[in-house]
Amino acid sequence: MAGAKITGVRTQIIRVPYLEPPKFQATVPTHQDFLIVEVDSDAGASGMGFLQPLAGGLRTLQCCVHEMLEPILLGRDSDDVAGAWQAMWDATYIQGRMGITVMAMSAVDIALWDLAGKRANKPLFELWGGTARAIPTYGSGCFRGLGQQGMIDKAQRFVADGFTAIKMQVAHMASDQQDVANVMAMREAVGPDVDIMVDVNQGWSVEQAIRVGKQLDAADIYWLEEPVMAHDFAGYRAIAEALQTRVVGGENHFTHHDLQPFFDHPCVPILQPDMMRGGLTELLRIARLAEPHGISIAPHLFPEVMAHVLAAIPNGSWLEYMGWHDHLWEQPVLPEHGAMTPPTRPGHGLAFKAEWLK
After folding, report:
1. CA distances from 236 to 152, 170, 257, 319 (A)
2. Which of 43, 50, 100, 354 measures 20 to 30 Å from 257, CA to CA?
3. pTM score > 0.85 for this model?
């Protein structure tokens, strides 16, 4: 297949209401914001990438795409996605390595992979050598702001829909004593056969994580997620050594460079990279680097795209499903009996509904 040249990059910011506003903080957002990036080629095909940063900065990201990245991309071979990633990384290294430049790169990278899949007439998982299969998926979104009974009610809805694992939140809004009581009540409510993931969202000190984590060991939770700030690698090691429960993290780390301490001193058996912090190129690279250490990959959010990744790597673990995006897509990718299967349409197979793009 003859190569196609990149001829343009288009962006759009959209705001879409949540079907169920996420109560993960005191102030509850009613809408979710997206930066959409489309990469055009002289072959007539286009690829689409998107970001949902959750903390604003979309116009800054949009400006970065056009000012810093688009000039690098124009005229390049659209099929050379890894080459484009490296060119963007090299050109923004002084200003970047993390943050805005890498997030902007990620949107472009997702769009380029989508374009490559469309040009090859293959879904991404097949383009990467995988096969379609159902990926275990946990029900996420038992938000701390729902309170104890609200979190339990949400979890029980997930279980009724066939999920065998759920995730709830602690820290930030309740005392340690109340958090422990909430987890114990959740275990009592869902029974011994449902896995419970507990997300701290970087809300504890090392001492606090060890003290509270030892109490949560008794609830037989599946993992304790992001107990301390992402940069505290020594803290992660200390907590992992002190607890029976597996400690996991990675969603706030940028690229494999930022995750290197977890490879140098393995203490986290499952990593949760986010496609917004390195793109699909980096997710595949992180999975390859993690495998020799026995580390599995359970990506953060975006299960509609992440299903392609986990179907193509040997060390995939869980997908995270919140249902945030089901109403966005022309053809949504929905869980069935606690599992999700990647779409077989070319590329990542996703398109925003026209009504959201107006």
Report:
1. 28, 17, 17, 23
2. 50
3. yes
